[in-house]
Design brief:
The complex is a heterotrimer of chains A (about 290), B (about 550) and C (about 325).
Chain A lengths: L5 H18 L3 H18 L34 H7 L1 H29 L1 H16 L2 H12 L3 H28 L2 H9 L3 H34 L14 H8 L8 H33 L1
Helix pairs in contact in A: 2-4, 2-11, 4-5, 4-7, 4-9, 5-7, 6-7, 7-9, 9-10, 9-11, 10-11
Chain B lengths: L12 H21 L24 E8 L8 H4 L2 H10 L4 E3 L5 E3 L2 E7 L3 E6 L12 H11 L6 H4 L5 E8 L2 E6 L21 H6 L16 E7 L3 E6 L10 E8 L3 H9 L5 E2 L7 H5 L5 E15 L9 H9 L3 H8 L4 E3 L6 H4 L5 H9 L8 H9 L8 E7 L3 H15 L4 E7 L1 H6 L7 E6 L8 H5 L11 H11 L4 H17 L3 E13 L3 E2 L17 E2 L2
Parallel strand pairs in B: 1-10, 1-11, 14-15
Antiparallel strand pairs in B: 2-3, 4-5, 5-7, 6-7, 8-9, 9-10, 11-17, 12-16, 12-17, 13-17, 18-19
Helix pairs in contact in B: 9-13, 17-18
Chain C lengths: L1 H30 L4 H6 L6 H10 L6 H13 L13 H36 L4 H15 L2 H15 L13 H34 L2 H8 L4 H27 L4 H6 L5 H11 L2 H29 L1 H7 L20
Classes of the chains: A mainly alpha (about 290), B alpha+beta (about 550), C mainly alpha (about 325).
């Protein structure tokens, strides 16, 4: 054994270790990873450039029509092509919403939970205010004053999603912030942010990650919910949420027009959660080991 | 807050697929096994008449409305659904029949001199609260519903009135400031009058609220109103006209189309209004269902505002008009349940008081802009923006078909270099935006009354587009003051011709509405005006 | 006493919140596109007198602040005003709808929390197993499936095919009403339950990894005692998420109310916003805010009660002996 070169052994054992780890990956997670890979490809590459081509006279046709495996929508656009093209608009925004909202959640939630006192009071009242604010009103005013648009909608959703993330993080931080060993760091005069990063946040991390992955699912659904106000995607664009709301009228003439994008949303949302939770668990195990 | 409309779950897609197949199978079997009067799937819009039994009595008749009402007061809401509900319990001096002609209601007879002085002889009748109908009640009602502050929606139909007086124990005379060819229809529950007790009108806190239910002389009496949910009514056995065949009537507000279909399928609804164009085939497959599709005189088209660049140039307006493929929209998007519009006021309305032939002739004479991309390109080339431009078009969220039509039009315009940015806005924002300086706007107008012509508003002095053209608005004013229907038709046709020549409007389609009747009831003489007449009394049980 | 002063403080904060919120909402409505006058008169031409009359009745010509104070003054006198759209008294307009929405929300919360928490615990106890994946997966499917399709499916299976529940509407008060609200409550719960499931799972799984659980088990402590302690320690995030579920449900849901034809607060709020019916929007928003304020106060109170260290820091200065059964879980990572 000592005759072989050390780097070769290290590389090989690392590979062996990785392979062993992969064998422990549950089937559902592996499938989900493939789904995410497919979604990523769809987001990055323009896979269906002619998705928006209309054929108004053709109109809605059911699945199995020659040339259209999943039929067409009311404007004669191929459902499959539209779904493939709609991936980017449907996925990118919600991911940003979940990330942005959790960023706010971690920042304000840990501030409120750790500092307590009037900081907590102010943040909590902001949370209560935003939770009670009618989302529709905020959306309409923003759309009316600033104009509609995809990224404005993302911003609005970040604001609307953040209160729940803030509260969840705050609650978790509260639990850890008052443990004796943390209090001792205060006595020792360690900077708060260091304590936060090193001791409190790692405990809160699994909760943060799992909630963030779920938020992607909620955001996927919410983005499409705002189109009817003139926010979100423009009516002619390729987007799963838009396909769903259009497809609602076509439920009997071509159910595939709703089923296909709906299935896409469900698959991506579930895949994100299964893969994400698995990776998050691995992260915790890796640290504890 | 998570999401605007919280989303729900299902277990597995496979299960839904199985259920969908089961549903389709089940319906087919049910349809096959059912009574012989079932029409073939994908039935045409003229169903076979059902055998009726006028001696039969129904316990309860349930009607599914597609709109929801927060108040029963027509005068303040002006919504079609409010008219439909009010017609159950209230009436005017006259009513309209299936063809849109005037027939007696609370007035047994009437006469007019020069369409300026109208004298009505009242019949003996009692209100639902037990008090008899007197001349004072009629006068009070007239004054209430023509008051622009108290009743803005109904006041619209009342021309300037010189006097309203009792000229006999059972006689009322209305004197107008100027002659009007259309006034005869105004004192009806389809337009501008609902006769109610004077005392009630004066003392009612909020007319049409759950605590101040409508009092009238109609075939039914409203006994319960839950805003946003339903209306319950009981048969008025003291009604002077033909009685309804159902002891109680229930109007349910079901705004979701699929839920309404399910309710109709399982027999919860005897009648369902506003069957969506995309679902009509599914509705007609329900066992024992009869669908009635009628032209509802609605006009849908684009308003091209000459006050906004680049629509100030007629070549640009022509170019846009040439890019609208009406036939594709009517056949593809509306499945043939509409007519490509070549004018503004529909022939069906133009014919009221004149004749079908005259109406069709009038419309045939109007200038039309055909779908022709080459002509569009040529028109654009001779304008100041030959390479094209960008414009916006907003459509109301309440009419998704207009959104699809907008996208179809945008696709065509793209080919001649015009980029159309389509956006969706809430319906109140859309109706508030008329005359606000938009270059291109959708207009959709569904007249609730035969004499309420879209041109009255669209070509009038206070038109929603905001155009100023004395020749057109002058002609429209003359039409409003016309003393005979033929004169009105002539003036309106001339005004419309001018407007279309200048391409101030680009007509797209005249719409239809479809009503579904279940196996328990039928009606003879169904028309677009049916639900503005005392319609519950006109529903007859099937044999 | 600590708890009393805590609650009083929160009550004061809630009142301040309601005032601030009413001002924010009023301003937003003012900025929103739309015109109450046009909504009331219809899009067709109206006489200048009619327009003037309406503008006077709703104080639309007065400066913004004066309009707000008009409304606020009314509220201080106990008068929430009348609906601009229908002229009906606000209490009548809200009356039945509040009860209906709260009942539906309550049922949905009961389902979401009553089923979500046990499922989450189960999944955490069997992390990585098929049960775990199924529970998490179904929860996410519940959230991401299209709402209208789910509502329709529930209707078709349980109302049409099986006939267990009525198809639409509210039914007669009493048991009949409960029957009518079951399907809408299920639809709502499926959408909001996921967060309860996932948060519970994450929190309980984290606790299960702690040393104290291993120590206690190896010491032979009975499983139910161990369970009590790790569940108690995990309870704070769970209760927080439960509170959020309630907060999200209390304003009603336009989608569910449409599909099941329920006259609830969601549709009323949405319609009133687009109509610019200020009194109704304000009344509903304040009601929702008050409920949310109370809920978050209760959640924070629980957080303090469940964890004595938190209690000391947030609720009061009184010295309390550590409660029995709360085994401190030291998550101290180096």
């Amino acid at each position: 054994m000592t005759a072989t070169a050390p780097t070769e052994t290290r590389a090989r054992t690392r590979l062996q270790r990785a392979a062993r780890r992969l064998r422990h990956v549950p089937g559902s997670v592996a499938v989900s990873a493939l789904v995410l890979l497919a979604a990523a490809i769809l987001v990055v590459l323009p896979v269906a450039p002619h998705a928006l081509d209309q054929d108004v006279l053709l109109g809605t046709t059911p699945a199995g029509t020659p040339g259209h495996p999943f039929g067409t929508d009311s404007l004669g656009r191929d459902v499959l092509a539209l779904t493939l093209a709609g991936a980017r608009s449907a996925i990118v925004g919600p991911v940003v919403v979940a990330l942005g909202s959790m960023l706010l959640g971690v920042l304000l939630g840990s501030l409120a939970g750790y500092r307590g006192g009037w900081v907590d009071a102010v943040v909590s009242r902001y949370v209560d205010l935003t939770l009670a604010m009618p989302a529709l009103l905020l959306a309409i005013v923003v759309a009316g004053v600033v104009g509609g648009g995809y990224w404005i909608t993302v911003l609005v959703l970040v604001v609307l999603f953040s209160p729940s993330d803030i509260r969840i993080v705050r609650g978790a931080v509260l639990q850890h912030a008052h443990r004796p060993y943390i209090e001792s760091t205060r006595v020792l005069g360690l900077p708060a942010w260091r304590v936060m990063m090193r001791h409190i946040l790692p405990n809160v991390r699994p909760l943060v990650l799992t909630t963030m992955f779920l938020n992607i699912a909620y955001a996927l659904v919410s983005m499409s919910g705002l189109t009817y106000l003139g926010l979100g995607v423009s009516p002619g664009a390729a987007d799963w949420g838009l396909q769903l709301s259009d497809g609602r009228d076509l439920l009997y003439s071509n159910p595939a027009a709703s089923v296909v994008p709906g299935l896409a949303i469900i698959l991506v949302a579930t895949a994100v959660n299964l893969v994400g939770d698995h990776l998050s668990e691995r992260l915790e195990q890796g640290e504890d080991a | 807050m998570k999401g605007l409309g919280t989303s729900m779950s299902t277990t597995r897609r496979r299960t839904r697929g199985v259920l969908a197949t089961t549903l389709a199978l089940g319906l087919t079997l049910a349809a096959a096994a059912c009574a012989p009067s079932t029409p073939a799937p994908g039935a045409s819009t003229t169903p076979a008449p059902a055998a009726t039994d006028t001696t039969k009595e129904l316990d309860q008749l349930t009607v599914g409305l597609a709109a929801s009402a927060e108040t029963l007061d027509v005068a303040t809401s002006g919504l079609t659904v409010a008219y439909t509900i009010a017609a159950v319990a209230q009436e005017g001096l006259v009513a309209i029949d299936g063809s849109g002609a005037i027939v007696p209601a609370l007035a047994e007879s009437w006469e007019t001199t020069d369409n300026t002085v109208f004298t009505y002889t009242l019949r003996e009748a009692t209100f639902s609260d037990g008090t008899p109908v007197t001349v004072d009640d009629v006068i009070a009602s007239i004054n209430h519903y023509r008051d622009a502050e108290k009743a803005p929606s109904t006041a619209y139909y009342w021309p300037a009135v010189k006097s309203v007086e009792a000229t006999g124990e059972r006689e009322v005379t209305i004197t107008l400031e100027a002659p009007s060819a259309t006034f005869a229809w105004t004192p009806s529950a389809a337009a501008g009058l609902f006769v109610a007790p004077a005392a009630w009108l004066a003392s009612a806190g909020t007319i049409g609220s759950p605590t101040d239910l409508l009092v009238g002389t109609g075939p039914y009496t409203i006994t319960e109103f839950v805003p946003g949910s339903h209306v319950t009514a009981e048969r008025n056995d003291a009604y002077w006209g033909p009685h309804g065949h159902a002891k109680t009537l229930r109007l349910d507000f079901i705004t979701d189309d699929s839920t309404r279909l399910l309710a109709f399928q399982d027999g919860s609804l005897d009648v369902a209004l506003n069957v969506p164009v995309d679902q009509a085939d599914q509705w007609s497959k329900v066992a024992g269902a009869r669908l009635e599709t009628v032209e509802d005189s609605s006009w849908q088209g684009l308003m091209l505002n000459p006050a906004v660049k680049p629509f100030d140039e007629i070549e640009v307006r022509r170019a846009v008009a040439h890019a609208i493929d009406r036939d594709a929209i009517v056949d593809g998007l509306l499945h043939g349940r509409a007519t490509a519009a070549t004018g503004i006021t529909a022939p069906g309305q133009l014919a009221v008081g004149t004749s079908e032939a005259e109406a069709r002739a009038a419309v045939a004479g109007l200038p039309t802009t055909t779908f022709d991309l080459d002509a569009a390109r040529a028109a654009l080339a001779s304008s100041s923006v030959p390479t094209g431009f960008t414009a916006t078009l907003a459509y109301p969220d309440s009419i998704p078909v207009l959104g699809r039509a907008s996208l179809a039009i945008a696709e065509q315009l793209k080919q001649i270099g015009i980029t159309l940015e389509v956006s969706q806005i809430p319906v109140s924002e859309w109706s508030n935006s008329f005359g606000n300086g938009e270059g291109l706007q959708w207009m959709s107008y569904t007249p609730p009354v035969p004499t309420d012509w879209p041109t009255d508003w669209l070509l009038g002095e206070y038109n929603p587009e905001g155009f100023v053209d004395a020749s057109i608005t002058g002609l429209q004013a003359e039409a409003a003051a016309a003393t005979t229907p033929a004169e009105r038709l002539a003036k309106v046709t001339e005004a419309t011709g001018l407007a279309l020549e200048q391409q101030l409007f680009a007509p797209v389609y005249w719409g239809t509405s479809t009503t579904a009747f279940g196996p328990r009831v039928a009606t003879d003489d169904f028309s677009q005006y049916f639900f503005q007449t005392p319609w519950p009394a006109r529903l007859v049980p099937t044999a | 006493m600590g708890v009393a002063s805590f609650l009083l403080r929160r009550l004061a904060a809630l009142t301040a919140l309601l005032v601030a919120l009413s001002f924010v909402v009023f301003s937003l409505l003012h900025l929103a596109p739309g015109d109450l006058v046009k909504n009331l008169l219809g899009p067709r031409p109206a006489t200048p007198e009619a327009v003037a009359a309406i503008r006077a009745r709703y104080h639309l010509d007065e400066p913004f602040l004066a309009q707000y104070l008009h409304w606020f003054g009314g509220v201080l006198r106990g008068d929430l005003g009348v609906s601009a759209r229908t002229g009906t008294d606000i209490t009548t307009v809200l009356g039945d709808r509040v009860g209906l929405t709260l009942l539906t929300a309550g049922l949905a919360a009961l389902l979401a929390i009553g089923l979500g928490v046990p499922l989450g615990i189960r999944a955490a106890q069997r992390t990585g197993s098929l049960t775990d994946r199924l529970v998490t997966g179904s929860a996410v499917v519940g959230v991401s499936a299209p709402g209208f399709a789910v509502g329709l499916l529930l209707l078709y299976v349980f109302a049409v095919m099986l006939g267990w529940f009525p198809l639409y509407g509210t039914g007669e008060p009493g048991l009949d009403r409960l029957r009518h609200l079951v399907l809408p409550a299920v639809a709502l719960a499926l959408g909001t339950g996921a967060v309860v499931v996932k948060v519970t799972r994450a929190a309980v799984a984290r606790e299960l990894q702690q040393d104290y659980v291993t120590f206690a088990r190896s010491r032979g402590v009975p499983e139910r005692v161990v369970r009590r302690s790790y569940l108690r320690n995990a309870s704070v995030p769970v209760v927080t998420s439960a509170g959020l579920v309630v907060a999200g449900l209390v304003g009603g849901s336009v989608l569910v109310e449409n599909v099941f034809a329920l006259p609830g607060l969601g549709v009323l709020l949405a319609d009133s916003i687009t109509y610019k019916d200020v009194p109704v929007v304000q009344a509903i928003t304040l009601l929702v805010a008050a409920t949310i304020g109370v809920t978050t106060a209760l959640v924070d109170l629980y957080t303090a009660v469940a964890d004595p260290r938190v209690r000391r820091a947030t609720v009061g200065r009184t010295r309390t002996a550590p409660r029995r059964g709360a085994v401190p879980g030291e998550a101290g990572t180096a």
